[in-house]
């Protein structure tokens, strides 16, 4: 079966390339708004499933991968900052604290119309950092389109005291360890 990534994210594409499988990408056109009172885990699973479902309609005999991620500080969902000022403010709020990243993953078998669904959590413990340090970081890395205002695969590693979770790829946006398990259940055996 054909493998399709329901995402145009260059980060997710680079992660999926690690598996050495040929795949296509397609942009999922969905409303990513959070429903009133929707818990973050439910949100990322719903969006991952919806992205995969929408793209599967265009690929009738494929395994379609949908993924979505949110960063949470306590009960607050942190979005993509969009500006340097918002990125610095967001990072200041996380200084010395733990942020949890919830990454929803869906593997949709479009031939059968069924799917596998999971959520992987990853915890980032931030060092205590001041505004000057965080401005330097934001100016250098420009993480304006990243949930949580940092790129762990880049210079963002300097912000952390500790990382905690089962799959570091989930922090970047695609939990590969869980995906390999899901693919195995579909007959795609790796390595």
Write up this protein.
The chain has helices at 10-17, 40-56, 84-94, 131-141, 168-172, 176-185, and strands at 2-5, 24-25, 62-73, 76-78, 98-109, 114-126, 160-165. The protein has 191 residues and is an alpha/beta fold. It has one domain: Maf protein. Strands 1, 2, 3, 4, 5, 6 and 7 form a seven-stranded mixed beta sheet that branches. Strand 3 and strand 4 form a beta hairpin. The model has no long low-confidence stretch (mean pLDDT 95).
Summarize the helices and strands and which ones pair or pack:
Elements: E1 2-5, H1 10-17, E2 24-25, H2 40-56, E3 62-73, E4 76-78, H3 84-94, E5 98-109, E6 114-126, H4 131-141, E7 160-165, H5 168-172, H6 176-185
Could you list some keywords that capture this structure?
Maf protein, single chain, 6 helices, 27% strand, alpha/beta, 191 residues, seven-stranded mixed β-sheet
Summary?
With 191 residues, the chain is an alpha/beta fold.
Biggest sheet features: 7 strands, mixed
- First-last Cα distance: 17 Å
**The CATH architecture:** Alpha-Beta Complex
Regions with little confidence, pLDDT below 50 for 5+ residues = none
Q: What percentage of the residues does DSSP assign to strands (E)?
A: 25-35%
- Average pLDDT across residues? 95
Order of helices and strands: EHEHEEHEEHEHH
- Tally of extended strands? 7
CATH topology: Maf protein
Radius of gyration: 17 Å
Please give the CATH class. Answer: Alpha Beta
Question: In which range does the helix fraction lie?
Answer: 25-40%
What structural category do the secondary elements indicate? alpha/beta
What number of domains?
1
Q: Give the overall shape.
A: elongated
Number of helices: 6
């Amino acid at each position: 079966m054909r493998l399709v990534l329901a995402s145009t994210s260059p980060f997710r594409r680079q992660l999926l390339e690690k598996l050495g499988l040929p795949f296509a990408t397609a942009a999922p056109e969905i409303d990513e708004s959070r429903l009133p009172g929707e818990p973050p885990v439910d949100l990322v699973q719903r969006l991952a499933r919806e992205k995969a479902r929408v793209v599967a309609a265009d690929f009738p005999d494929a395994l379609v991968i949908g993924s979505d991620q949110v960063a949470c500080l306590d009960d607050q969902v942190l979005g993509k900052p969009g500006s340097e000022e918002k990125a610095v403010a967001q990072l200041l709020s996380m200084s010395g604290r733990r942020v949890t990243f919830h990454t929803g993953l869906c593997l949709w078998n479009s031939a059968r119309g069924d799917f596998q669904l999971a959520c992987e959590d990853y915890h980032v413990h931030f060092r205590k950092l001041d505004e000057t340090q965080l401005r330097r970081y934001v100016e250098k890395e420009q993480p304006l389109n990243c949930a949580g205002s940092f790129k762990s695969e880049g210079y963002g590693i300097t912000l952390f005291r500790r990382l905690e979770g089962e799959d570091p790829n989930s922090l970047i946006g695609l939990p590969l360890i869980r995906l390999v398990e899901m693919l195995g259940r579909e007959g795609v055996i790796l390595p």
